[in-house]
Specification:
This protein is an alpha/beta fold. The chain has 2 domains: 226 residues, Rossmann fold, CATH 3.40.50; 185 residues, Rossmann fold (3-Layer(aba) Sandwich). Helix content is 47%, strand content 14%. Strands 3-2-1-4-5-6-7 form a 7-stranded parallel β-sheet, sandwiched between helices. Helix 10 links the parallel strand 8 and strand 9. The longest helix is centred in the first third of the chain and has 27 residues.
């Protein structure tokens, strides 16, 4: 099957280290390994990791002043509104989306690529995939990773809320089937559509071949001077809700009673410098390693250097994530300690493949970690159980299930009409 994969969000560089960037590459790689031919149309290529096995059409994110002015007029806004930078960014998204469909179709025409399916990653204020699929007369599968309008409004501020919600509704309704990465996301989509009939929950996956290698950890431990010390690990974005500051506070208490303990926290983000400052303030420079950004291809070796992986997400009544770092840690044979929240409670079996604690409870988190620190054989058993549990979360399985929706009877009937 020939697949047009659309990623119109310029905030997701395909070759970058974001979880969303990894998701795009892994999905395409698995699709190619299953024998499908993929053309990726994206807004930002980025750098830092090898490209996925696909033809790549980077539809440059460029919006002219004339297009911005036209968008303002259509929205009933004065051109002076563009002086508001946040509003300008949202208007730019709308203007870019209006040209994205035509530019993608133009590339398909010039390249001779005739897709059998449009697979689109949902993006804020974007609905071009609806027009592309209709023009081509092929099914459109929409992948939804978050309630983007609510997320934008809550964390970054949203000026064009009415337009954002209208685009969201059109994008959802224009999909023949929707892939939601968690039950919480599926519920959100169902609330918008009034039904979950076309919505299918498919959690994020993992590359089992790469993360199950169990090599490279001893070299890293030697380079970092970790020796035989028990190592707690964190892999992810240093964003407030990922809970790295929470973990550092727990670690500070643990190291008082287990001074041989080490913490290896891999990643980058807005909280990294604050974490570095706190480590220095608390005199933990010898116990805590903060290597910063690491290419995703190297993460398996870093996980191999850890004894326990921690995913310390903070309490959130609307936790909708499908954390790749948890299934990747499990596939690497590393037991995970995490809060009992959202999809996490479905991924980790407490006391078998990891430990769960009440969200936000530092004492419970510390006790769970202490249990694994002091019981190396139990820890290794958990790691083996985690690896077995991760086997059902391969990207190959995820992609095969997702693409099978294109051949579902309801989808075929919808496209034929």
């Amino acid at each position: 099957m020939k697949i047009l994969y659309m990623n119109p969000d310029r905030g997701i560089p395909v070759l970058g280290d974001k979880g969303a960037s990894v998701h795009v590459r892994e999905f395409i790689t698995a699709a190619a390994e299953l024998g499908h031919e993929v053309l990726l149309a994206c807004a930002t290529l980025g750098s830092g990791n090898p490209p996925p096995p696909a033809r790549i059409a980077c539809i440059e994110y460029s919006v002219t002043d004339a297009e911005l002015h036209a968008a303002c007029i259509e929205l009933g806004l004065p051109v002076s509104a563009l002086s508001d930078l946040a509003l300008r960014r949202e208007i730019s998204r709308l203007a870019y989306d209006r040209t994205f469909a035509a530019r993608v179709l133009g590339h398909l025409g010039s390249s001779g690529f005739r897709p059998d399916l449009v697979y689109e990653r949902h993006a804020l204020l974007h609905r071009a995939g609806v027009r592309v699929a209709r023009r081509l007369g092929v099914p459109r599968l929409l992948e939804v990773n978050a309630p983007l309008v609510e997320e934008q409004r809550r964390f970054r501020g949203l000026r064009l809320e009415r337009e954002s919600r209208a685009a969201e509704v059109e994008s959802y309704r224009g999909a023949d089937a929707i892939v939601a990465v968690s039950a919480a996301v599926a519920e959100h989509v169902g609330d918008i559509l009034g039904s979950q009939q076309t919505v299918h929950v498919m959690p994020n996956g993992v590359d089992l071949a790469r993360f199950g290698k169990h090599q490279g950890g001893s070299v890293l431990r030697a380079q970092l001077g970790l020796g035989g010390s028990p190592v707690l690990g964190f892999v992810g974005s240093f964003k407030p809700w990922h809970g790295m500051m929470f973990l550092l506070e727990v670690f500070r208490a643990l190291v008082e009673i287990r001074p041989e303990l080490r913490l290896l926290a891999v990643g980058d983000g807005p909280e990294l410098e604050a974490i570095r400052s706190r480590v220095a303030e608390w005199g933990l420079q010898r116990q805590v390693s903060l290597p910063g950004r690491v290419p995703h291809a190297e993460i398996p070796a870093w996980l191999d250097a850890m004894d326990v992986s921690v995913a310390p997400y903070l309490p959130d009544p609307d936790f909708y994530f499908s954390p790749m770092k948890i299934v990747e840690s499990m596939a690497a044979g590393c037991p995970v300690v995490a809060p009992r929240i959202g999809q996490i409670a479905e991924l980790i079996e407490d006391q078998t493949s990891g430990r769960l604690y009440a969200p936000g409870d530092q004492v419970a988190c510390a006790l769970a970690l202490l249990e694994l620190i002091d019981a190396p054989e139990h820890r290794r058993q958990m790691g083996r159980a985690a690896e077995l549990a991760a086997a059902s979360h391969s990207w190959a399985n995820v992609v095969e299930q997702a693409l099978s929706l294109a051949h579902a009877p309801a989808v075929c009937r919808a496209v034929a009409q």
